[in-house]
Structure formats: C-alpha cells, structure tokens
Design brief:
The chain is mainly alpha-helical. It has one domain. The chain contains 3 helices and no strands. The longest helix has 29 residues. The radius of gyration is 18 Å and the shape is elongated. It starts with 11 loop residues before the first helix and ends in a 12-residue tail after the last helix. 0% of the residues are buried.
Length: 84
C-alpha cells in the first residue's frame, strides 16, 4: 500500500496523550492519527453540508433535531445543542 509520510509536532502534553490513546486503542500511532484526521475531515464535511442545507432550507428545528436523534439512537440533540 502506498503511504504519504508526514512529520507532525505536538506540545509534549498532547504528544503524550496521543501516544497513550493510540496504545489504549491497540493501534499504532500512525493508524490512530490517520483515523483521527479522517474523523475530523468527515466532521468538517458534515458541518459544511449542514451550513449549505440550512442556508437553502432554514435552520433545523428542535423537533427535527430530536427526531433525527431518536432515529439514530442518540441522545436528544435539542437538549445538547444551544439555542440560536
């Protein structure tokens, strides 16, 4: 498999926490960081999509968020999302 090698720098406390999290997960540091980067990219893509969707259709209502949370089996988002 082709890989893109990168060099990253962290402050010491963050570096220690990242190494510990990778060890707890049973993954290597590179794999753990790749998973974290992929999750961040997905979150940013979702945020961009939601911004676009709300610009076209209006903000999601508390009822819509609650229904989505229920359908996804998540806690009620209307109780965790601050009101606009």
């Amino acid at each position: 498999m082709k890989v893109d090698k990168l060099s990253v720098s962290f402050d010491p406390e963050l570096g220690d926490a990242v190494r510990a999290a990778a060890a707890r997960s049973g993954r290597g540091l590179s794999g753990w960081l790749a998973d974290a980067a992929a999750a961040r990219l997905r979150a940013e893509a979702l945020a961009a999509f939601l911004d676009y969707w709300e610009a076209e259709h209006g903000e999601l209502t508390a009822a819509e968020l609650a229904r989505a949370s229920q359908e996804l089996g998540l806690p009620d988002a209307s109780k965790t999302v601050p009101a606009a």
